[in-house]
Hints:
Elements: H1 2-9, H2 16-24, E1 27-31, E2 36-38, E3 46-52, E4 55-60, E5 66-72, E6 77-78, H3 81-86, E7 93-96, E8 100-106, H4 107-116, H5 120-144, H6 147-157, H7 167-174, H8 178-188
Antiparallel strand pairs: 1-8, 2-7, 3-6, 3-8, 4-5, 4-7
Protein name: Crp/Fnr family transcriptional regulator
Pfam families: cNMP_binding
Domain Cyclic nucleotide-binding: 30-113
Amino acid sequence: MKEFINYILKFGNLNKQQADFLMSRAKTLELHKDEYFSEAGKIPRQVGFILEGVIRFCYYNNKGEEITHSFSEENHFVSDQQKFEAQVVASDYIQAVTNCRLLVFSKKDWDEIGNTIVGWEAIKVLIEKNCLLKTIERRSPLVSEDATTRYLSFIEQFPGLVNRIPLSHIASYLGITQQSLSRIRKNIR
């Protein structure tokens, strides 16, 4: 749990009492591979912090194809934040790609943290901005680069993920077929 507090401290200060209060509101959740943290069509009920494992965000396009649009790994938050805060129905699925262990906070506890810890809202805004910026930095090159360059960028951005997640998810994230990804991988070895 120390990883969680250290992550929070990158964005603001907490004294021991505040850190203890924050941890008192956290619960541990184990997700098995392919289980959902949050599902499209349902209201997101929790915010999580990944202690172990990899999570992906995906949706189904109008052709019924599954599209992966981002990944999160250890020491990152995971939530459909806007839908969670507004308590409205999500349009994305948040799914465990590997077995995962997370710290989770219910909406009630998350709100209580905000109402109790002075300066929490400022910390939360900085965390959200950081998460959004990372997502944009990772997605932007995917628009203009060829498939090989996108794959090489993926390896650079997610060095520990290539051997942890199915190629089908990587191909979906890169916007290519699994066969194309296999050819690219074969050609760069």
